[in-house]
Write a structure and sequence with these properties.
The chain is α/β, with parallel strands linked by helices. The chain contains 16 helices and 16 strands. Helix 2 packs across helix 3, helix 5 crosses helix 12 and helix 13 runs parallel beside helix 15.
């Protein structure tokens, strides 16, 4: 624990705020460094001659500013600062930020070896031979009905059969999330999310004035008791969850857990945004939450992780009571999904191309998980899901996530910093490795060998020969 005692001055604006300001100043001046543990709240309250509640509020304010992180029972720690090149960023042209020109980027779930080239060429040729002029006109905000019917058939699975009338086509899954959160939330509302979640959701919450609060996870995703406690203490309006192949942990929520989550949502009148973009790769997941509670769920899916991300084709299934508001937001946030992309998607659904591409993605993901299991024998995989584009690995005790990410980048491998996914509380000692992103299996094997040696604490000289 760090020996640090703040000066609260005259406490103008409140002593809790003064404490948060003092923490920020100490970090800026280098008196508190990333990873330092702050004094226990009771001890600090005694030393400062203030109430325990004042210290609790001060620590909470510092956490909301992104200065500290902590869980009950494990203490409060100074956060690792965000650094270029170690956060959640999309692939850029040219060398990776902060790395060599030949760096291997495993930080984002992309597919570096496109499987769709031939089907795309064939479909473009067919489109050119048809009268496709209607695809260049304005369409309904929900999309053309034949495209929505194709989407309904694509989304259909045992126990879940959305009607085409209920589907809004979007320009990808992120667009669908933006529409859903904008339609269901109001500025000032609390949005509950898994305490490790898809990073753009944090940005969307900030854009729409929503207050984020993280719910603790286990091997099945959001923990019901933690959700119940958050509902009682935060009075939230919205809940964002990824029940199948949770990002980044790959957790899959069982059927009983899903029923329990829905029961809590009904009891507290929560509206749910269910993200199934990566979950669409799963072959044996239980029914979606939306199938259990269609009256309070927005279901989000897309082609991004299953078929082709560049098509920017997403699907949003909205509750009947919220449909007009969803359509209004869809018009405001882009009017409509690109009809040309939706036409390609609907043709691929109809002729089986989409299913074949998804199965090819599953096969490749399985093979890459096998490679990871054989190479990363010194790291413990958590939430194993062989069809996921990424793996989630716990690090040896001597490593913090940010330090491991920086060490990897220094040796030419980029992975996502766990801090990018953290909402509140400590990010933990695990990393997400996007296995799908390597341009080949051999490139992946080489990158994973570097990560394995870093995990085992190999000397820099030994790493250099890789």
């Amino acid at each position: 624990m760090t020996i640090w005692l703040p000066e609260l001055g005259d406490g103008r604006g409140g002593k809790a705020r003064a404490l948060a300001d003092a923490i920020g100043a100490a970090i800026a001046e280098g008196r508190l460094r990333p990873g330092d543990r702050l004094p226990p709240q009771r001890e600090l309250a005694w030393q400062l001659h203030v109430s325990l509640g004042t210290v609790t509020r001060g620590y909470d304010a510092a956490r909301r500013r992104g200065l500290v992180e902590g869980h009950v029972g494990s203490g409060t720690y100074v956060c690792e600062p965000e650094r270029p090149g170690v956060g959640f960023v999309l692939p850029a042209d040219g060398p990776a930020a902060g790395g060599a020109a030949d760096a291997i980027d495993l930080s984002v779930d992309v597919y570096a070896s496109p499987l769709w080239t031939e089907p795309f060429r064939h479909t473009l040729t067919a489109l050119g031979a048809d009268d496709a002029s209607a695809l260049l006109e304005y369409q309904s905000a929900a999309g053309m009905m034949r495209h929505r019917e194709a989407a309904a058939s694509w989304l259909r699975r045992p126990g879940f059969a959305p009607d085409a009338e209920d589907i809004v086509l979007t320009a990808g899954g992120q667009h669908a999330l933006a529409i859903a959160l904008s339609a269901l939330g109001r500025p000032g509302d609390t949005l509950l999310v898994e305490n490790l979640c898809y990073p753009p959701v944090k940005t969307l919450a900030e854009m729409y004035g929503l207050t984020l609060h993280g719910v603790a996870l286990d091997g099945e995703g959001a923990i019901p008791d933690a959700l119940e406690a958050a509902c009682r203490s935060r009075a939230p309006r919205l809940l964002y969850l990824t029940p199948t192949l949770q990002n980044p942990t790959n957790a899959v929520m069982g059927a009983a857990r899903r029923a329990e989550i829905v029961e809590i949502a009904r009891r507290h009148d929560l509206l749910i945004v269910e993200d199934d973009v990566t979950g669409a790769l799963s072959e044996d997941a239980p029914k979606p939450l939306t199938a259990l509670a269609p009256e309070r769920c927005c279901f989000v899916s897309s082609f991004s992780k299953t078929v082709a991300p560049g098509l920017r084709t997403g699907f949003l299934v909205a509750p009947a009571a919220e449909r007009e508001r969803v359509l209004s937001r869809a018009r405001a946030l882009g009017w409509m999904a690109p009809p040309v992309s939706c036409e390609i998607a609907s043709r691929w659904i109809g002729d089986g191309t989409a299913d074949r591409l998804r199965e090819a993605v599953r096969r490749e993901n399985r093979r890459r998980h096998e490679i990871a299991a054989s190479v990363l024998d010194g790291l413990e995989e958590s939430g194993s899901a062989a069809v996921s584009p990424h793996a989630w690995y716990r690090l040896p005790e001597r490593w913090r996530s940010s330090g491991f990410v920086e060490a990897a980048q220094a040796h030419g491998v980029r992975i996502a910093c766990t801090r990018s996914f953290a909402v509140n509380g400590r990010a933990g000692t695990a990393v997400r490795i996007s296995l799908s992103a390597a341009e080949s299996r051999e490139t992946l094997r080489r990158a994973l060998a570097i990560l394995a040696r870093i995990g085992r604490g190999m000397p820099a000289a030994d790493l250099a020969i890789l």
